[in-house]
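Onboarding guide, step 5: your first structure request.
Type a short instruction followed by the sequence, for example:

Predict the 3D structure of this protein.
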Amino acid sequence: MLFSFKDRKRGLQMIQNGPWNVRENLVNLRLWMEGESVFEVDHDFMEFWIQVHGIPLDHMNKETGILIGGMLGVLAEAEDLKVNGVLRRSFSRIRVSINITKALLTGFWLEREEMPPLWVFFKYERLPNSYCFNCGILGHEKKTCKNLTVMACWDLTKRKYSPGLRVSQVRPVSAMGGESSKQQGWREEEEEQARVPHSLRRESDAK
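The system replies with structure tokens like these:
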């Protein structure tokens, strides 16, 4: 399906605010490049805003977001977490183009000197309903999945994927304004954090 926008800026906004779904069907908006056939447009990749939770406070910065974004896929943007030197979020937020033909990554173990490994986990903003709790791949649901069930490596009796991987989109730090305290800036993030199933904080993508 081909979408055309008279205003290029409006078209870019549609892509940047995605992903989108229509009647539970995933819509992957991709830019057409001059000289390219519509059949050559690559729909294997899609951009998501991804929240990164559990990072130690001394590593809560844009540079860490850039490193993690490169691990996930092709980094499009890493949010600056500070406004006037004040940390405004309890998590990092990055926009990354990921390969949607592969299972979604849920997090990683962060090795630390003289301390136990720390589980850092991901949440995907505006993740469509058409992602499979069975295998973690976008485009189909559990009831139609023909792949093997992916289990959490820390407990082979529990599934790796759940609805908790999906969250609503949050405001960018730049739009938060001048709250009088960090707690005001973190209000919506703390509400999201409270809804995270405990199991998501423990599973790992490590092979």
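Each response can be followed by summary notes, for example: The helical segments are 8-16, 62-72, 182-194.
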